[in-house]
UniProtKB/TrEMBL annotation:
<dbReference type="InterPro" id="IPR003111">
    <property type="entry name" value="Lon_prtase_N"/>
</dbReference>
<dbReference type="Pfam" id="PF02190">
    <property type="entry name" value="LON_substr_bdg"/>
</dbReference>
<protein>
    <recommendedName>
        <fullName>Lon N-terminal domain-containing protein</fullName>
    </recommendedName>
</protein>
<dbReference type="InterPro" id="IPR046336">
    <property type="entry name" value="Lon_prtase_N_sf"/>
</dbReference>
<feature type="domain" description="Lon N-terminal">
    <location>
        <begin position="11"/>
        <end position="203"/>
    </location>
</feature>
<dbReference type="InterPro" id="IPR015947">
    <property type="entry name" value="PUA-like_sf"/>
</dbReference>
Length: 213
């Protein structure tokens, strides 16, 4: 398990719209673009084996920018297909704030980052003392029906608070800016409250006036 002293000041960045990674959660990824294959080759040579997942967004000038906060994951599973693609799993370690992007010779993006302010990410599993599961699961069931989604309901009902809330935050089909709001929620309780707001919004038919900022 990584400690704060193990976190490097510079990490490679994988900007993938809608792909959310949270601390102590796992994100499977399929890597095939040459620049990210090169990134994986470089990451596997490091001791921390960290990749920063960040939501990109298009600026008014058409330039693709990066959100200021992302989450770093440690490469914990790796397999290569016969045609040279990689199937990997990132295990969420800690959120970070981007200080600046580094100009260099790598085909992928790299950033200087700060880990300050995210100490709870390296701590124990969080609990949500105010979590009332019965109305939440009822609302979630209606959301899944409307979205035509399927899941293992027995596994969801028995999951611990953090696993349940973070898994839903990562898997539910929300917009990238909403995924960012879930990522930036300081505590598990606030993430659950954000998740409930997004589900209620979707159940009421959406609309631009309800978009989280």
């Amino acid at each position: 398990m990584l400690q704060a002293s193990d976190l490097p000041p510079t990490i490679p960045i994988f900007p993938l719209p809608g792909a959310l990674l949270l601390p102590r959660s796992r994100l499977p990824l399929h890597i095939f673009e040459p620049r990210y294959l090169a990134m994986l080759d470089d990451v596997m040579k490091t001791s921390a084996r960290l990749i920063g997942m960040v939501q990109p967004y298009d600026g008014p000038d058409g330039t693709r920018h990066l959100q200021s906060i992302g989450c770093a994951g440690r490469l914990t599973a790796f397999s290569e297909t016969e045609d040279g693609r990689y199937m990997i799993t990132l295990s969420g370690v800690s959120r970070f704030r981007i200080r600046k992007e580094i100009e260099g010779f790598t085909p992928y993006r790299r950033c200087d980052v700060s880990w300050d302010g995210f100490g709870r990410d390296l701590g124990a599993v969080e609990t949500d003392g105010d979590f009332d599961r019965r109305p939440f699961m009822s609302q979630l069931c209606r959301f899944f029906e409307e979205q035509d989604l399927s899941t293992d309901w027995d596994a969801l009902k028995s999951a611990e608070d953090e696993l349940l809330i973070n898994s839903l935050a990562m898997l539910c089909p929300f917009e990238p800016e909403d995924k960012q709001a879930l990522l930036e929620a300081p505590t598990l309780t606030e993430r659950r409250e954000t998740l409930v707001t997004l589900i209620e919004y979707a159940l009421h038919g959406g609309g631009n006036e309800g978009r989280l900022q």
